[in-house]
Amino acid sequence: MNLQARKISGSEFSSEDKIEVTFSSDSQTIASVLHTVELVSGVNVTHGGGGQPNEYLHYKSLDRDAESDGIIDYSNVEMALVQDVRGTSVIKVVCVVTTKADLDLFQASVEAYQERAVVAGVDEEHPLGINDSFDEVFSDNVNTTILSTGDITLEWSDDNFV
Question: Per the CATH hierarchy, to which homologous superfamily does domain 2-99+143-156 belong?
Fold first, then answer.
């Protein structure tokens, strides 16, 4: 898997920039890719309309971006960035990738555990802390891959009258 990013719009005289993020998955089917920015140094930067650094957002929509088989193409994403105040920011784009195989394996283990609990007549919580409604917390327990880009420098300053 590989993650790269580049600035595609914005200038040093604006707080707003846009970056293009490309992702390749080596022919693996991807279930989910969540993106964030890591603030390496400088002034704070938000992404995706207000997401803070290290706050992961899903930049693709099942309704808008999924193919007929329900698979979303995560190979290209545009991220809108806004610096909070004038200055220089150095960021990295970070993503958390969940493959369909890892998600299927996790879901199968939860279902197998639940079946064993029902057969044994036991009403216990899953060892991972997951009960019957595990959808909201699966990302904390399913195997994921974290990828990061190199540094991207953003500058917001004033020009002087001459």
Answer: Uncharacterised protein PF12988, DUF3872 (2.60.40.2410)
% of the chain with per-residue pLDDT over 90: 56
Give the Cα separation of 16 and 79 in Å (integer): 11
Nearest to 7 by CA among 148, 155, 158: 155
In the chain, what are the domain boundaries? 2-99+143-156
Helix (H, G, I), strand (E, B) or coil at 32: strand
Query: What is the Cα–Cα distance from 95 to 5, expressed in whole angstroms?
Result: 11
Calculate the alpha carbon distances from 21 to 8, 90, 147, 151 in Å. 10, 16, 12, 13
Amino acid at site 115: E
When pLDDT is cut at 50, 70 and 90, the band that residue 86 belongs to is very high
* The pair of three-digit structure tokens given for residue 23, joined into one six-digit string: 């992702």
